[in-house]
Design the sequence.
């Protein structure tokens, strides 16, 4: 699995944790902003759904009605859980919408980062500077600056709320302090994991574009080392003293009052207020009766009424045209909803299969409970069996190649008896020129699985199956030579 499969989850946990931490501090400042503890599940669920949907399924042709259905899935239950009260459900619904919208931005940014060809253009793959291009881009901000900006903004916002509520949290129950600490720890872990994962994802994109051969265990080692760093950081943060900062709301208020305090002389205002305003004698005051409107005034009123009516008609016509255009566009986009549902179902099934294989590998890696000679015999028998049979992933790769060959035969790209797997790869490259890198990676991995002396890493095998599945999909969509 690539880094992209983990990043939406990290973004969702970071978004939900930051919003939860902010609402906890806001609840200390004002009881009207307090939220129930179960709202965290809605924040996390909406962020997960929004981030993964944006990263894998959202396109410019996605109907707006689908987005409305997404929001309704999370907002409608909030209305009922809040006692069917619009006033009580408004604040939780707003927080859920912010969580959904923020996570949608993270998922869309991952898709934008994959468009490396839009930035590099016709630049040769051999001239790509991985280190430089992974950190910055000259024309568009496709690197990790987007993630850093959000991390800094969210961090400053939480710091302001923490300073404003300093001193009030001491009077609150201990459960609030525990909730604040848990939310802060989760925000730190997920935020830093998101930053490191975004950088790794950027490198993977550039490596794929440059057709570089990279160790398949890099992603696993990257996140394992990152986990150790985050564990040490959590220990330091939790063992450090809490009230070590002298910056509090009281000190900031004192500094501001000393800086902006000015003495205002009110003498001039009092003197001017005491003076009497000039007035005319009663005898000189005359009553002027209003004149009846003439023909010019009537014509002016008619013109104003006509202009106002014309403006209203223009606005209504514009709204009607926009509504008609939106309706036609939406109806046209709704035709792709069945295909979208199938893609989501296949993605969920594929994710469940990968999770099941991961659990099986974890179970297989656990030490056996059998003791003595019996356990040794079982181990030797398992080693002997594995030496005679292909691994499950190896069988999957070979079966996937047979499916690719069968589908290619239907499209006029048969796997002839005289072909080797590598020669058939060249045939596919000649027809699917835009997928040369993907084909190269799959067939190189197939050669290693089929003939390599060493066992391939599990992560690389998963990436190999994903690449083969993508090739199969591209062949199914291929319409032949034009």
Sequence:
């Amino acid at each position: 699995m690539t880094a992209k499969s983990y990043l939406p989850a990290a973004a969702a946990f970071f978004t939900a944790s930051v919003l939860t931490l902010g609402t906890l501090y806001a609840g200390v400042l004002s009881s009207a902003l307090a939220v129930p503890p179960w709202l965290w599940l809605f924040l996390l669920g909406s962020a997960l759904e929004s981030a993964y949907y944006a990263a894998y399924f959202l396109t410019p042709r996605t109907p707006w009605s689908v987005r409305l259905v997404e929001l309704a899935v999370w907002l409608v239950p909030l209305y009922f859980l809040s006692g069917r009260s619009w006033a009580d459900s408004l604040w939780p619904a707003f927080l859920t919408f912010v969580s959904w919208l923020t996570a949608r931005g993270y998922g869309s940014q991952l898709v934008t980062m994959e468009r490396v060809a839009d930035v590099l253009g016709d630049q040769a793959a051999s001239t790509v500077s991985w280190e430089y291009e992974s950190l910055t881009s000259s024309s568009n901000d496709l690197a990790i600056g987007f993630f850093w900006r959000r991390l800094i903004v969210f961090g400053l916002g939480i710091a302001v709320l923490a300073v404003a509520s300093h001193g009030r949290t001491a009077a609150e129950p201990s459960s609030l302090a525990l909730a604040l600490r848990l939310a802060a720890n989760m925000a730190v872990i997920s935020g830093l994991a998101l930053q490191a994962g975004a950088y790794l994802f950027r490198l993977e994109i550039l490596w794929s574009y440059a057709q570089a051969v990279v160790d398949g265990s890099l992603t696993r080692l990257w996140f394992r080392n990152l986990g150790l760093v985050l564990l040490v950081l959590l220990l330091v943060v939790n063992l450090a003293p809490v009230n070590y900062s002298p910056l509090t709301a009281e000190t900031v208020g004192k500094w501001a009052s000393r800086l902006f305090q000015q003495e205002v002389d009110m003498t001039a205002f009092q003197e001017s207020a005491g003076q009497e305003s000039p007035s005319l004698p009663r005898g000189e005051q005359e009553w002027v009766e209003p004149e009846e409107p003439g023909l010019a005034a009537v014509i002016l009123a008619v013109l104003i009424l006509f202009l106002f009516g014309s403006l209203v008609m223009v606005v209504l016509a514009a709204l009607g045209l926009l509504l008609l255009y939106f309706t036609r566009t939406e109806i046209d986009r709704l035709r792709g909803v069945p295909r979208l549902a199938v893609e989501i179902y296949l993605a969920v099934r594929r994710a469940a299969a990968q999770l099941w294989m991961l659990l099986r590998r974890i179970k297989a890696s656990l030490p056996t409970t059998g003791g003595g000679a019996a356990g040794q015999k079982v181990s030797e028998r398992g080693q002997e069996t594995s030496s005679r049979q292909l691994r499950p992933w190896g069988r999957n790769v070979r079966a996937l190649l047979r499916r690719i060959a069968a589908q290619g035969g239907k499209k006029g790209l048969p796997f002839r008896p005289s072909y080797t797997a590598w020669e058939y790869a060249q045939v596919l490259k000649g027809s699917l020129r835009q997928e040369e890198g993907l084909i190269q990676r799959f067939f190189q991995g197939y050669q290693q699985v089929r003939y390599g002396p060493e066992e391939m890493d599990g992560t690389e095998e998963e990436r190999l199956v994903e690449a083969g599945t993508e090739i199969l999909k591209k062949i199914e969509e291929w319409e032949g030579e034009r």
